[in-house]
Fold:
Amino acid sequence: MSSEMRDFMAASSGYDGGPQDRHSCIVLVDMTKNVLLGQFSDYRVPTGGMQVLSDRLRDEFIKLGGEVYTNTPVTGMANCSSGSAAEHHQALLTAAGKPFCSKSVILALHEGALEKLWWRTLSMETAWKAAIPGEASKLFLGFDKPWWREAPFGFYEGAEVSSLDIEHTYFIGTQADHVSANTSTGQSNRNSLVLASYAVAFPAYRWANMEATKANISAFQGRANAFVGSETPLVPNATGFTVSQHMVDLAMHQLHQLHNVNAGTIPPPYTAAAIHWPVSWHNWGIGANPSEVIRKVGQLDAYQNVFICGEAYSKSQGWAEGALRSAEYILEEYFNLKPLAGMPTKWLSRYR
Ligand SMILES: Cc1cc2nc3c(=O)[nH]c(=O)nc-3n(C[C@H](O)[C@H](O)[C@H](O)COP(=O)(O)OP(=O)(O)OC[C@H]3O[C@@H](n4cnc5c(N)ncnc54)[C@H](O)[C@@H]3O)c2cc1C
Structure:
């Protein structure tokens, strides 16, 4: 990808273009149609949120007599050593130690996870080189009040995009907006949340390297707040990422820059939380032929009963839609399932 293309991406989406070895033509088409014109995007959210999809899948599978194992990573593949026609079956090895012998295996994993399995095939090697993983990071800051609704800012909520390392900023709102106005604490609690930085590619990498433990710099301490007390000013560290003082200082500095106000105009946050995805989504690399790669990993050359799907090897990389479409493609193409009820007939047309 040329530097002009990177500039175009940054200017049109606010996202860093990422590695130079991305496929420029695909980026151009995707950026223009998806982001600028919204042509491929038909935004849908399942009632109840995305989790509904996997919950439903689990429930239906169990209803049909299936067994579901969570928190049980696949650690490898082998030939089945027993059972009828054992040589045509695959054994899925798991961290639980119990191998699962199966006639067909569908792996909805990206290359980072697949690479850890011991087996390799020519088509897997091709796929690893074709889909380049990208990083993402988010840094949330909690304030005592929604300062952006006051002078000199004066806006209610919304999003901002800049070429600074914070990239995307979202002003999410206050507790009082959401808690019942009938409760006195609800009305007076103006604790407010800002997604100070939603960054991808190199900026995300830079934020990740500012983590307190990695950078050997002090962790952000937080401070007392009327509604959380002084003992628990920090959000519980659910993601294992320790926000550093440096990250908070840099984000605050850039928020001042973004609004062109003097240092100290924005009150300091009382809490902070961050998360980093080393593999957030994928992009096709230079010379990649998506249709060919999707076909090759769809049904592996050396293992005809192993199928791979997921966002990484889809024609809507970066979107849940890509993961769903590629799974649907495998099921229709190799398992002769009927198209998903209610989906547009052309849903899979770009795959064939
Ligand atoms: C910050 C962020 C924001 C995003 N925003 C959007 C958005 O607004 N809209 C949108 O459509 N998409 C969004 N996406 C992209 C979307 O989340 C992905 O495209 C989608 O989740 C990919 O689905 P997948 O099934 O291919 O992979 P994943 O969701 O990564 O699923 C793979 C699963 O495999 C599991 N796994 C890994 N290794 C093993 C192993 N060895 N054994 C067993 N299991 C294993 C993982 O734990 C994971 O649950 C976002 C992604 C990120 C990171």
Summary: The mean pLDDT is 83. The domain at 134-280 is CATH 3.90.660 (Polyamine Oxidase; Chain A, domain 2).
